[in-house]
Amino acid sequence: MTGLVLKLGPHERVLINGAVIENGDRRSRLAVMTPNAHILRLRDAIHPEEVNTPVRRVCYVAQLILSGDAEPEEARRQLLRGIEQLSQVLTDRDSRAQLALATHAVVEHQFYQALKCLRLLLPREERLFAAGEL
Question: What's the whole-model pTM score?
Answer without folding.
Answer: 0.84
